[in-house]
Structures are given as C-alpha cells and as structure tokens.
Amino acid sequence: MRLPEWIKVKASGMHETKALLRSRRLSTVCEEARCPNKGFCFSKPTATFMILGNNCTRDCGFCSVNSGVPSCVDAEESERVADASLELGLRYVVITSVTRDDLPDGGASQFAETIKAVRRKLPDAKIEVLTPDFKGDVNALKIVLDAEPDVFNHNVETVRRLYDKVRPQADYECSLNVLKNAKTISPRIKIKSGLMLGLGETMDEVMILFKDLRAAGCDFLTVGQYLRPTKKNLPVVEYIRPEVFEELKKTALGLGFEFVASGPLVRSSMNAEEAYGRKDV
C-alpha cells in the first residue's frame, strides 16, 4: 500500500548522535526497529537505548528486530549507556531491550543495573523503561521496579483477537498482568503502554483494549499507525486517518488516562519526556 501524505517523514540530521552511539558500542530500538522518527529524535538529540544485544528470542509479526541466538550479557553495557546519556545531555532516558527468554530473569537484572548506572551519572534525569513481559514473572518485574524507574512501560501492541498473528509468542492477559502487577508493586511509578493501529482491529476492539489498560492501572497511553518495516513483516491492513487518532485521544482521556499521545507517527518512546508530569499534551 502506498503511504498516504499524512505519514511521510522529512529527513533530519542525526550523524553526531549515531557516531556517539557507535563509539560506545550501543544499540537503539530506533535503528533496530526501523522507526520512521529516527532522524527527528537523533537530531534533538535523544535515543531509546536497547540493551541485552540485537537478537530477540521471539519473532513478532510486526517487528524488524533480528530474531536468533542471543548474545552474552555485557557486564559493561550499563555504564556505556550512562556515559552516552551524560554525553548527550539527556534529561529523560529511555531504556528498552530485546526479549531474552533464555535468561532466568528475562534480563531484569540488566535493566536494574542500567537504571542505577544512569542515576549515578545523571541524578536529576528521569528514567523510563520499556520492558518485555518476562513471561509474567513477578520476581523479575520486581527487580526492575526496585531500581525505581520513573516510568514503567510495557506495550500491549494490539487487540486481544490479533495476538496470535501479531505477537504469537506473547499473551494478552499476561501483558495486562505485567502492567497491573507493576502498579501494585510500585503505585507511585507511572505505568505506560502503547498500541498500533492498522493491523485489522475494529474500533470496538480498541475501546475494549483502552478499558482493559485503565483497569490494569495504566496512566500513560500511546497510539500510533503500524508501518511495515520489511517485506517479511505483516502487511498494513489500513492507514488510519489523523482525525481518527484525535478522536481516540479524546476518548482515552475521557476514560481517565493522564496522558495520551495519539497520531499516525506516534511511537512509544517518541517525545516521552513530554508525558512525565503533563496531562494536556
């Protein structure tokens, strides 16, 4: 399907940010997942650090991150993330990872070490983590939350009916329970989730998902258009018009979400700093 005019992205300068990331031997989800906003974010500069290697143990239909044999955990990675955050002058640091079902704690300890390392170098910065589901392991979740990120994010990605196609190795109820358990364990931490439209969902299903997220204690919500990153990924079923995203934002705010970013090019970590402490963006 041809891209409609409203989701075409203008290129932006990003060479200095890329050079810094390469020199620190760091990966970003911006690059690995082929995010359309990469140039915009890198030019600010900001980036979403992707820890625990470049190979994911799952193979989701929407995602272009490599699926394969994962690398060994790098003990120095957390310090490199902290050093890069300091050099970039970040006030808000977002940390995500590939899914690591091969590790006993799913990589939770590496999240915790990275949070602590960033805190040491940038004590005034806010930190958001975007984690996998840890197979629903509450102990792994607690390891991350005990490190006290400011925002805990786990994306549901799509409606219940489409999970078998979009996230075949994940489970809708498990993802909701990750959010619910995070809010129960750490009530003061803001809980965030996000989803993509254009995969064949109905608006009724989206409304159910919004209500399920609110019931799970989700505070922040992001809603964006699914864009096919490679030919091996799922095709786009529909391009959703900008006015639909605006209506969804109003509806979600009416359900009690503190912050909603909804638009064709909205991604989970784009302008994440704006969500923290604001209710009107």
Descriptive overview:
- The protein is an alpha/beta fold and 281 residues long.
- The chain has a single domain (5-275), classed as Alpha-Beta Barrel (TIM Barrel), CATH 3.20.20.70.
- It contains eleven helices and eight strands.
- The chain has helices at 15-23, 29-32, 38-42, 77-88, 108-121, 138-146, 163-166, 172-185, 203-215, 242-254, 272-275, and strands at 27-28, 48-51, 92-97, 126-130, 151-153, 190-197, 220-225, 259-262.
- The chain has an eight-stranded mixed beta sheet with strand order 1-2-3-4-5-6-7-8.
- The longest helix has 14 residues, at 108-121.
- It is globular and about 45 Å long.
- It starts with 14 loop residues before the first helix and ends in a 6-residue tail after the last helix.
As an assembly, this protein is single chain
Distance between the termini: 31 Å
Could you report the average pLDDT, rounded to the nearest whole number? 88
Low-confidence stretches: none
Major sheet characteristics: 8 strands, mixed
Query: How are the strands of the largest sheet arranged?
Result: 1-2-3-4-5-6-7-8
Q: Can you describe this structure in just a few lines?
A:
The chain has helices at residues 15-23, 29-32, 38-42, 77-88, 108-121, 138-146, 163-166, 172-185, 203-215, 242-254, 272-275, and strands at residues 27-28, 48-51, 92-97, 126-130, 151-153, 190-197, 220-225, 259-262. By secondary structure, the protein is α/β, with parallel strands linked by helices.
